[in-house]
Amino acid sequence: MKNFKILFRVFAFLVLLSITACTGDVEPIDPYVLNPNVTECPEPTTFTSSDFVETKVTLTWVSEGDLWEVEYGPAGFAHGQGTSVTTAERTFAVDGLVATQEYDFYVRTSCGDVFSDWVGPIGVNDTVIIDPNPNPNPNPQTGTFKADFDGGTFVATTTTAFITGDGIAITGLKANGAGFAILLDGQTTGTYTDNAGIFYNQSANAEFGYSNANADFETNGEVVITEINTTNHTISGTFHFTGIWSEFDAVPAVPNKEFTNGTFTVPYTSTNPNPGSDTFFAKVDGTEFSESQIDVGFVSASGVPDYISIVGTKPSGDNLGLRVNDGLAPGTYTITGPLTDDVVGAHLLQDDVLYQATSGTVTITQMTATHVTGTFSVTMKNFEGTVTRQVTEGAFSVDY
């Protein structure tokens, strides 16, 4: 049961909290594989390049899909005469360049036998930024979080960590919403195997992702906490695991994915970063849900409205959460069902069982650019629809 709890707590931590990440909406399975009748392939957008850092330039873009082709060469080169590289990441570092040379870069989406049009060129001039320290220490304010998979390296742009009496929680997220969550049943340095939950999501609002737990909740891989620096308040470690698609009965089956060379050094906190500023109350089946922590996040994702995530968590890991669209006018909004309503929603994780709202209302009494206050009453059911939970007297007032 411990692994079961870890898996769903990590899922909730990454997918439902999405801590202040700006996210992108990425399909978990390539739609062009599942539907061969699809002939259009989306072009990348927001294609940009960094200046030179010694001999390296970093390219970034926004796009749906799983694979992209980058072609580059001296300024003015013709397609087919440059250097072509295929990548599964939306951030790609081109190294080995001549810092005094001007270059053009193109990118297109690869959808199996179909390609989008090329986007570009974008150029980089001969302005050179010399890195005075090629191996700098991690910035204690932002942290570092990396992992290798699909022939590339994931590098997080946002990191968080909590060390509490309930365990260790660590996240590394990219600006497009992809990210890892690690949850450990322990508070010290050492090696964690069957008491470690690891989850990778391709999008902060995706329903499924890769976990180190199988359908029987048996885990693989390991997380090694190498240092907890109580002076700098950072936690460091390594990890690796075989990722198993969390939709166990997917058709066609999604192959496992190997995640290797995971490393992190992340600032941690052991208390609510905004003690006393947020309030959250509710009763579940008539009993007060006595949370010890309130987490509030703002999620911005393409294809869906921006929303605020509010989650109260008990020391046991049970949690109760709400999703409220950003910018709602004061009024009462109806929950129509699990994962079907774009305005408000709710979930409950209790005693290792995940419940989602099937009906209910959320009333917004105040909404500003940084604060939301309201009440809620929700009926929830488990995935099978066999157990019902009533959430009543809900109230919240939080900054985001």
From TrEMBL:
Species in which this protein is naturally found: Flavobacterium magnum
Organism ancestry: Bacteria, Pseudomonadati, Bacteroidota, Flavobacteriia, Flavobacteriales
Official protein name in the record: Fibronectin type-III domain-containing protein
Coiled-coil segments on the chain, per record: none
Record's keyword terms, sorted: Signal
Keyword match Transferase: no
Signal peptide (residue range): 1-23
